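Forwarding these from the shared drive since the link keeps breaking.
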Amino acid sequence: MHEEYLYVIGGYHPDSSILKDIWRLNTKSNAWETCHVTNLLPSTMASFSLSQYLSYHMLLFGGTSFPFGHNQSNELYSLFKRDGYFNLVLEKASGDIPPPCYGSAFISAGDTHYLVGGTTGREYNSHIWKLEKKNSWHWTKLTNETTHLLPKGRYKHEAFIKETLIFIFGGGSTVDAEPLDKLPVFDTASKNFITISTSPDSKYGFPLPRKCFGAVQHEESVYIIGGCSHDDQKMANVLNDLWRIDLATFQWTKLEVVLPVGVFFHSASITPDGWIYIFGGNCDGQSKVRTNIVQRFSIYST
């Protein structure tokens, strides 16, 4: 999201496989238009990770092509806008370069970026890598198999940073989803995990375990949007609920509003004035029906 525009980058559609384009939605006129890109986006634009740290400047990492999990990437790209065009640059990186993976969380804290978890399609991890630019981009792995309270490996989770703490929400594998009553939290100062117990909504309790959901942060609150949990190994339970957690008190609140169309594998973004936009996603439990609709709600009307 930038100014009045919502940007959609890459993705997957079964009719055309991996999508290697950029679109933007004018949130004032509700009109879509394609964006000019100086060179082709990579073929691994499904479940890649994005970290935005400047206006019109973001980092892209990893992702998979189709069939999912057969061709993963650990390449790092800069994507930035200049003179009306998006420019994609393959960056050279050194250090503890993460393995090829997809479904990771990628977050920024000023000039420092953190990559959290992900999957090769067969193995899942919950490791943390730090990315910094000095003379060039440099990766540092902050965890290993002996790290205190290292959580279960996962993908399609979300992560947010507050001061030195990285909060990890949900995620899972192809056959399970992680709960949200207790959150794994990584302390970038001590380089250890802690577990934080959250407080349930007084009426609805805790949100269901989930993965492939949307999440945005506004001030001290994180909003969890839709996603899916698993009733069995063949059918996903598609969710349309919306939740807020206060990062100061760790209190969950279920919002009264629900998504008109329950989705998972969607994207979400928030405007400065508190409008949350949700784009696309799967809307059936067998992942056969996808949508390109835009749903939105105001955090001030919930």
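-- next protein --
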Amino acid sequence: VGEENSLIRTERLTVGKENSLCRTERVTVRAENSLCRTERLTVGAENSLCRTERVTVGEENSLCRAERLMVGEENSLCRVERFTVKKTRCAVLSD
């Protein structure tokens, strides 16, 4: 539990050059404790699904969740949620 303690876990599954599934989890314990999880699913160069969740426990506690779904260059769905609580610990992160 120092300033440089961190746990990083990465899983990647690739099927050919187009299809890939990448999941990264990172836990860092420092002055601003944070938990960041990223999941990305790419099918070809056009279709992609990216989901990011971040929880920070510091002076400005925040929970940020972003989901993006792209189908081709034209159609896109982007959803971003952010929750900030100052001087209070964050609530439990759940899917």
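Confidence is low (pLDDT under 50) at residues 1-33, 42-47, 66-91. The CA atoms of residues 6 and 89 lie 20 Å apart.

- D.
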